Amino acid sequence: MAGRGQSAKSTSSYSAAVRAPARSTVLTDGSPRTGVYYDETGKPMRGSAQVHDLAFQDRVVRETRALLATV
Hints:
Order of helices and strands: EEH
Distance between the termini: 39 Å
Number of strands: 2
């Protein structure tokens, strides 16, 4: 805040320059599978052991629903 006789010019070193977002390439696969992630070489990645555990999936859904019910 500028006082009497002081300049309102900011002394911040923050740059207001706007940078363009980085470009990304979306890799797709023609199979009917969904939710496939690819590594930097384009090879499909397998999810963690927890992701493949049905009991863990059920727990995540249950806990997420409980959380959403509170908002």
